[in-house]
Amino acid sequence: MNSFLAETLAGRTAIALPYCQANGTHVQVLDEGVIRFEPREPDARGLDLVVSCGVHGNETAPVELVDRLISALLCGTLRPRARVLFVIGNIEALRRGVRFVAEDMNRQFCRVPDVGDGPEARRAAMLEMQLVRFFAQAGGEPVPRIHYDLHTAIHGSLIEKFAIHPQPAPGKEFDRAEIARLGLAGVSAVLLQSAAAPTFSLFSSRYCQASAFTVELGRAMPFGQNQGVDLEALEDYLGALIEGERPSPASSDVVAYRVSREIIKQSPAFRLLIDDQADNFTPLPHGTPIAEDGETRWVVDEHDARIVFPNPDVAVGQRAGLIVVPTTPG
Ligand SMILES: [Zn+2]
């Protein structure tokens, strides 16, 4: 039998009726690239977990990881003791091996659908509906809700695996326990967002009350060329969550960073004064000129600053980089 991913890429997954595996697990394909697993016994539903991947179609390592987990669940070597929803995000872009077809899909969430929406915006609206439905159908006592949106980065990174924690809803705080737990998945830094970017993880955080993270796992490579991306710790960790474990680290090795400043491109004259190929989390010594835009100059005045996502080729008004500094979540 072909894997779920192979079937999806071949256009052969569509909404299907739920069925029950011999071990009692309920399986249902809810949409193209969207599959849900549920333990039969309500007592065994201790966690509602969403794992998404492929929101950017050129980031294939996490898609292969998700496909392995789905295969293990379908053949019964993994037996869920949590409700799990897997989402393969931008299927057409995955087929073409490109980041996106019309627009960056991870900027199309948390918005009102419009008749002029392109393929990414329409798919994002559909996925939002699937998440709302998944969390609403839990029934029984409330259980923890987690969403990991798995990515790989365009840039290299001095910190190979890091996560972005969306800005909490007003009155809420960053989730310290879940930040610490990510250390078990091989993640060593978490960037706390200062502004609400319209990402998939912001949606599940804001509208589904999930503890949500965008997880960056190393370099983006084509299918079959991800040997350099070591996802073993993450795979073990997700397998444990699916089997109902809630592993807790003895101490947290995860370093939290906050955004000190956003570098916004204000005009076509914008110039980045550091290497735009600089790895994420490259240290920026005090006094370093970072960028200039007409009269405006950005110079490092923070202690222990680092650069994240440097990119001068964005549209005017968009973010050309972030200056981040270590912090304590809370
Ligand atoms: Zn991505």
Automatic annotation (TrEMBL):
Q: What is its EC number?
A: 3.5.1.96
Name what cofactor the protein needs. Answer: Zn(2+)
How many and how are cofactors bound here? Binds 1 zinc ion per subunit.
Q: Where is the AstE/AspA barrel-sandwich hybrid domain?
A: 253-326
Where in the sequence is the active site?
Answer: 216
Top-level taxon: Bacteria
Reaction equation(s) it catalyzes: N-succinyl-L-glutamate + H2O = L-glutamate + succinate
**Which Pfam families does the entry mention?**
AstE_AspA_cat, AstE_AspA_hybrid
Keywords, sorted A to Z: Arginine metabolism, Hydrolase, Metal-binding, Zinc
Q: Under which pathway is this protein filed?
A: Amino-acid degradation; L-arginine degradation via AST pathway; L-glutamate and succinate from L-arginine: step 5/5
The residues that hold Zn(2+) are 56, 59, 151
Q: What does this protein do?
A: Transforms N(2)-succinylglutamate into succinate and glutamate.
Protein name per its UniProtKB record: Succinylglutamate desuccinylase
Organism the protein comes from: Jeongeupia chitinilytica
